[in-house]
Amino acid sequence: MLTSAMSFLLSTVFNLLCFMFLLRFVMQYLKCSFANQIGQIVIALTDFAVKPARRFIPAWKRWDIATLVLAFISQLVLQWLLLLLHGPTLGLAGNTAWVVILGSSVLGVVRNLVDIFFYAILLQAILSWVNPYHPIGTALNPLTQPLLNPIRRILPATNGIDFSPLVALILLQMINVSVVSVLTYQLSTML
């Protein structure tokens, strides 16, 4: 029981940290404004690590590599701690444990990246019904448009109803369930 509680706590903290690093990465890449509530929260929660990391990890073109590396490191630490908590010691598992840790870390980053777009689209859809002029909407538009615009070209609005958010949410969940979850399960069976 204590192991489950610790596992839940570690997963929550490190996945939230990874989510924030990736959100900062995506917002910078898509040139989203940080002059809103979401941007200010992201900066406040990630500056403690991003500023020092940028001294050692330079940006490359439009890619803020430091935040991407920090997201991967947060997943790496999480997977390592979970393996120590649940599984055999790293010495007994050998090189297979490191393959599982690295693979699970990459999949954790991908899962969090998919979740960013999923929650941004979901929040934007809810706000469009409740309060379409909410200031957070200006932060969500640049995050969701790269996914929604291609779907809108294929599936135009029907009778004034835009189904592209629904299609995007289904596709994002399919990626998480059919690709990320399956690969994560296959990695976990390697131990």
User: Helices and strands, in N-to-C order?
Assistant: HHHHHHH
Task: Give the total of beta strands.
Answer: 0
Q: Number of folding domains?
A: 1
**How far apart, in Å, are the first and last alpha carbons?**
22 Å
Low-pLDDT ranges: none
Task: Bin the helical content.
Answer: over 70%
**In this structure, how is the largest beta sheet organized?**
none
Helical stretch tally: 7
Structure, explained:
With 191 residues, the chain is mainly α. It has one domain (2-188). The chain is built from seven helices and no strands. It has helices at 2-29, 37-56, 65-86, 90-93, 95-130, 136-154, 164-188. The radius of gyration is 19 Å and the shape is globular.
Task: Please give a handful of descriptors for the protein shown.
191 residues; mainly alpha; single chain
In short:
This protein has 191 residues and is an all-alpha fold.
How does the SSE layout of this entry go?
Elements: H1 2-29, H2 37-56, H3 65-86, H4 90-93, H5 95-130, H6 136-154, H7 164-188
Helix pairs in contact: 1-2, 1-3, 1-5, 2-3, 3-5, 5-6, 5-7, 6-7
